[in-house]
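Internal tracking record. Fields below are filled automatically when a chain is submitted to the structure queue. Please do not edit lines marked as system-generated. If the sequence contains nonstandard residues, flag them in the REMARKS field before resubmitting.
Queue: standard
Priority: normal
Entity type: single polypeptide chain
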Amino acid sequence: MIGIIGPEDSIRLVQEVAAGEGRAGEGRAGEGRAGELTSRAYARPEQAPELARELDELCQVLLFTGRIPHALATAAGDLRAEVDYIRHGGIDLYRTLSRMLLATGGQLPTVSVDTIEAGVVRETYHDIEVPAPTEILPIADSTGLLYATLDDVTAYHRDRYATGAVEACLTCLGAVHRDLREAGVPVWRVEHTRASVRDALRRAWLAAEIRQSRATQIAVMMIEFAEPASRRHDPYEVERQRLRLREALLEHAERMRGRLSMIDDRTMVITTTRGTVDSALARHRAGHASLLTLRGVDGGHTVGFGAGTTIAAAEDNARKALALSRGSGDTHVVFPDGEIHSTRVSPVKQRLRETAPGILRVSEQLKLGPLSTRRLLEALHQLDPNEVTARGLADAYGVEARSARRLLNSLRAAGYADEVGVHVSTGAGRPQTVYRVAMQRLFEAIGGDA
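SYSTEM-GENERATED OUTPUT FOLLOWS
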């Protein structure tokens, strides 16, 4: 489910665009994919964080209709869902300028502009061979951090108009448009085009699919029990303890919807899915009891969780987590990309370092980080190496198609991939270059670390 957060008019547009989208053989006539959306409307962007928390439990992805509500909600933190916003780009500005030209008889006034990056504004004006505005307020830096409030944006436009620096104002913000209009300032609102909304919805649907795929990854809970202080015990009591322990672990495995198995006398594992572990982490962060901790187990023990695309990879990460847990006494979780979570709250996000010589060697050739290289190998392992496309790699790796194209270009430049053709889709979208990836050559370069 995708959660949409924005003003009522923007939400209506998103729902209309979603109703026009569809998958073959799915959905009722006229509904498209609108049924996959749930929305919350606000009167002012400051309400966005509260609405985001309300939808966070229901949705895999939260899509904001503007940059300010997105920034306010992400700054508030503690959201489990993926978050994104519908960007204002050149195509939105083109439409607004076209409307202005029609309304003014072909003469564009000098304007101040907010939200849209200065480079996009200048490029758009350059395309129509008109001098670009000089009064541009982006409102946020490249990381999404706001350095202008709604009141700041309104004051910026009012000041530029009052001093005669501009003849009208262009704003992407509904609240600012309303305030300026009530103050008698000539103002045009840069609204999203259907194309911009469609692109954002498709990103959101892809993110939801990737999140769902990630949730079904294999995860392993590895439990290591302390060596008994003395082996001289009543054999009947030892067996009773073993049965009590197995019963407690079976109950825990049942709660995790997993399978219990034994590695050796001191080590047991519960195999489950990453989605179960993600839910347990979310409950722990919220301060609730979670499946990260064993209940009803006597004696000293250490717990580590690992996730991966295969059982072997998940167990390997679980052993790494177990080693971290032994040294700290906390429970650790290690994910395929090297990210680590601990039951101890820390302001610093931990990440494992990759030290395998083969991986480091290939990483240098690809000009990627070592953990990104290992993640790329795991993604390629899920694909047919003779028919790899950017779209297929994007889905397996968990990035957008343009990032996947850069990864494939890196493989080609390093001699590990070749272009072998073009795949043309029967639907909309650009043709996809098809690559053949030399997996055997990659494994030979990595050596025993593969």
